[in-house]
Every structure is written in C-alpha cells, then in structure tokens.
Design a protein that fits this description.
The complex is a heterodimer of chains A (about 425) and B (about 100).
Chain A: H1 2-38, H2 44-61, H3 81-100, H4 107-123, H5 130-162, H6 168-208, H7 220-236, H8 239-248, H9 254-273, H10 280-294, H11 302-333, H12 335-358, H13 374-379, H14 391-398, H15 413-419
Chain B: H1 7-34, H2 49-54, H3 62-67, H4 75-100
Helix pairs in contact in B: 1-4
Classes of the chains: A mainly alpha (about 425), B mainly alpha (about 100).
Chain lengths: ~425, ~100
C-alpha cells in the first residue's frame, strides 16, 4: 500500500510540474510575440504557432543545465516531494491569477515564491537562504527591467534617427522581418531556459521517489513532455498578457518592435553569458517600455506599467502564501489524502479562474483592439471595439459590464463607473 | 548593498547589451536606409519595378508605389546594406549557437 501511494504521489507531482510548465509557456508567449502581433508583422495565430515550435525546438536544443529547483535560495536538504508539490501549486495559482488580470509576471519568480512559502511552512525561516533570495531574485527583478529599458530606449532612438524621412511603409516592411527574427530568438531562448526548469523539478521528484537512480540524466519522456506542454501552452497563448504587452504599455510600430525584441534577446542571452541571469518576463517588459521611451512622440502608459510592477512586487509573497497554505493543508490532513485534497483544490481554483476569464474573453480575434483606459471605456460603451463576425463579438453583446474586452483587468470598471 | 549586487557582471551586461541590443537594430536601420530612396541621394530615374523589389522596403500597396519613386540603390549602398544585414544575421546565429552550446 505504501508503495502504491508513493507512486500516486509521484505521479501527482509530475502532473503538477507539467501543469506548471504549461502555464509557463502560456504566460510567457507575449514576451516574445506580443510586439509582432501588435504591429501585425505576424497574424496572431501564426505568431503563437511560430513561438510554440521554437519553444519546442529550444527545449531540445540543450540539456546542459537541468536546473535544480531554487538552488541557492532554499536549503536543499528540506526539499521533499510535498514541499515541491505545494510550491508548484503556489506558482501555478499565481501564474493563472496574473493571467486573468493580463499582467505579465515572471513564471520563475512565481515558482520560487511558491517553493519558499512551502519551505517556510515546512521548516520555518531556517530553510530559506535569504541573502540568496535578495541577491538572486529580488534585486535582479528591479535591475532587469531597468537595464532593458535603457538598452531598448537607446536602440529605438538610434533607429528612429536613422530611419527619419523614410516612408513609413518602407520601414514597416523592412523592420517586420527584423522583428520576427529577433522575436524568434527570444522564443528559442525561452524554450531552452524555462523547459529545463520543469525538467529539473520532475527529475528531482523521480529521484526523490526512487523511480530513477540519483545520478540519472533526464529521461527522454521527461524532456519530450516538458517541451510538449510548454509548446502547447505557448500555442494556446496567454492572449490577455499578450494584449497588455503589445497594446497596453506602448503603441508600437515595427521599428520599436524590432528594437524591443533585439534588446530582449541581447539582454537575456548576455546576462546568462555573464552569469547574471535575468527573468525573461522582466526583460521583455522593460524592453517594450524602453521602445516607448526612446521613440519620439510615443505614449507610454506608465499607469499600466506601475500596476504591473506592483504585481511583480507581490509575486514572491503571494505565491509564497499559496505555497505555505497548501503545505499546511497537505501536512494537516496528512499523507496521500492531504496531497490529493490540495490537488483537488488546485483543479477547482484553476477552473474557477478560467470561468472568470470567460466573462471578458481575450483571444486572437480581439487581442489587437484599441487599448482604452478604464475611463474611456466606461464613458463610451457604445464605441467598444468589436471585431465583426467573431465569437468574441457575440460574447461581448451578451455580457453587461461596460469595460468589456478593452480593459482586461477586473479592478477597472468600478472606479471608471464612479467617475462616469 | 554591494554584497547583493554583482556590479561587475551587471556592468558587463549593460555595456554589452547596449552594443548588441541597441547596435544591431541601428545597423538594421542603416541597412534599410541604404536600400531606401530617401537615403540622401536623389532617386535614380531609369528604373523598373524590380528596383522597388530589391529595396525590400517598398510595399506592394498602391499608395506606396505612387509616393515612392522607382529606385535602384547604387552598388555601394547595396554593399553597405548587405554588410549591415549580414552583421545582424551573424548576431542571431551567434545567439543560437550560444543557446545550443548550453551556455545559458
């Protein structure tokens, strides 16, 4: 009996790790493709397909680092299957919540937060290496967007000067190619880096569960399933996040798009080259902001950016809280039943978040609609952007809230109505 | 603070990031400019539709063709453009090689 429950526990951890892997792809599609979708360099469906394929290829590209989970952040000795499981649930929950609100936030930070929370719940503060958390997670979260803003702003401003006087149609066509190329590189880098995190977790779980020897390399089915679920997540596309990145922060043209994506690719690759890895999401967001800063006359919506950065600040504590609560529930009920209950809660929460998202769906049909600040949307409900003849349109027509689809955040309608 | 920020690595990322991340788009822009009729030289008039195709810039759309005079860039400009685009492409190849070699 003991063996059977051990096996089922292991299976639950593996499934949950793959689910995290899926949300990771899902959440991060926008990092690479939001700008190409916003400038219409690629059709939305083509963009997510390209990104999915490149993520899949990227996952197979290199297995040099099957990254150990939260290395240098928590005491490796306290990592058990239960701790990892609760941490994964924390990471998934935060990924789904931020997706619901259309906020790009770092998937790896969500996972790290979840694991730190569950370690805190399991063994207390002694299990967490705080200096590592500050130096490797919190400070880079501030530095990554800053560096990316500077690089992308300088790049965009140079490009704007160099293309002055050239007809817009000419630059659009030329830069779309550059944009697609650089965005592809970002996708590839994402697949290589992030799929390995899930592989590392699953390998760790397999070793802890005794399914493979401790010096085992990553089994092929693990590589394949991680690559597959990340690609699947990428293909389904976190349209809400894509919309915020592509339309919410800055109105971009393809020159800005190319500068932003090149800045992202360069900063991501160079930072890992110099051993100072920065979060893909933070870099990509910073680059897009920078492309607005560097472009003369471009409007940057700092309010949207501020809301996003507030969410980044909350990532660790929020995912950590979920991780801790999950560990307590798991530990309180005890044994296999505890894990099964937490798993059921995860499934129910995910379903609830998905249902909530259906109230204002964002998909490939309306991802590029004009971005409207909440006030505009509420004041002029009649002018809501509706793509004719699409599912989204019929959904829009049958739902009542005034800020439909144009504002992918739940908090927007209330103050907007008050003002109106 | 210093124990929490690796200034050395950070500085390298910023400097190299600026050179590559801002430099490549700038080179690309130079390439586009070289192939574009408003790059500082008067448009050459004896030209065919293939000239606009080479420019890689002029759109198929009718409006563009009417505003953009038919144009074939001088060989020197094409050479500079090829050099620019080639450097950008090389940058991408180096990036892919870096990923594949497990340097991340």
């Amino acid at each position: 009996m003991e063996d059977v429950t051990e096996t089922i526990l292991l299976a639950l951890v593996v499934v949950t790790a793959l689910a995290f892997d899926f949300t990771n792809g899902f959440h991060d599609t926008g990092n690479a493709m939001a700008t190409s979708i916003a400038t219409r360099a690629l059709k939305p469906k083509t963009a997510v397909l390209l990104s999915a394929v490149l993520n899949m290829v990227g996952a197979f590209l290199s297995l040099a680092v099957a990254a150990t989970i939260a290395k240098g952040l928590v005491d490796a000795n306290v990592i058990t299957l239960e701790v990892v499981f609760a941490g994964l649930v924390g990471g998934i929950t935060w990924n789904l919540l931020t997706w619901l609100f259309g906020i790009p936030s770092s998937s790896s930070h969500a996972l790290v937060g979840g694991v730190i929370g569950s370690v805190l719940a399991a063994v207390g503060t002694s299990g967490v290496i705080w200096s590592g958390v500050i130096a490797k997670v919190m400070i880079p979260a501030l530095l990554a967007p800053t560096v990316a803003i500077v690089v992308a702003a300088v790049g965009t401003s140079l490009v704007a000067r160099l293309t002055r006087g050239i007809p817009k149609a000419t630059t659009e066509r030329g830069f779309r190619w550059g944009q697609i190329g650089s965005a592809s590189l970002v996708s590839l880098a994402h697949g290589t880096n992030d799929a390995q995190k899930s592989m590392g977790i699953i390998l760790l779980a397999l070793i802890a569960g005794g399914a493979v020897p401790s010096d085992s390399s990553v089994p092929f089915w693990v590589i394949f399933s991680c690559a597959f679920f990340m690609a699947l997540g990428t293909y389904l596309g976190g349209w809400r996040v894509i919309r915020t990145l592509g339309k919410g922060l800055v109105e971009i043209d393809s020159r800005q798009g190319m500068s932003a994506e090149t800045s992202s690719a360069a900063v991501i690759l160079l930072s890992s080259y110099f051993g100072y890895s920065l979060s893909t999401t933070h870099v990509a967001t910073g680059s897009i902001l920078g492309s607005g800063v560097g472009m003369p006359g471009a409007k940057v919506r700092w309010g949207v950016a501020g809301r996003m950065m507030a969410a980044w600040g909350m990532t660790l504590p929020a995912a950590g809280l979920v991780g801790a609560v999950c560990f307590w529930i798991q530990d309180g009920i005890g044994g296999f039943l505890g894990t099964a209950v937490v798993f059921a809660i995860l499934v129910a929460t995910s379903a609830a978040i998905w249902l909530a998202s259906r109230r204002k769906p964002v998909d490939h049909t309306n991802v590029n609609d004009e971005w409207e600040e909440s006030g505009d949307a509420a004041a002029q409900p009649a002018e809501l952007p509706v793509t004719p003849g699409t599912d989204a349109a019929s959904v829009l027509a049958t739902t009542a809230a005034p800020a439909e689809a144009s504002v992918p955040t739940d908090d927007a309608p209330e103050p907007a109505r008050a003002r109106a | 603070m210093t124990e929490f920020i690796e200034f050395d690595a950070l500085l390298k990322v910023v400097v190299a990031g600026l050179i590559v991340g801002a430099g490549l788009p700038a080179l690309f822009a130079v390439g586009v400019r070289m192939l574009s009729p408003t790059g500082g030289e008067p448009p050459v008039s004896e030209l065919t539709a293939s000239g606009t195709a080479v420019s890689g810039g002029a759109a198929e759309g009718g409006t563009t063709l009417t505003t953009t005079a038919p144009f074939r860039p001088a060989p020197a400009r094409i050479a500079v453009a090829v050099l620019c685009f080639g450097t950008v492409l090389a940058g991408v190849v180096v990036g892919i090689y870096f990923l594949a070699s497990g340097g991340h």
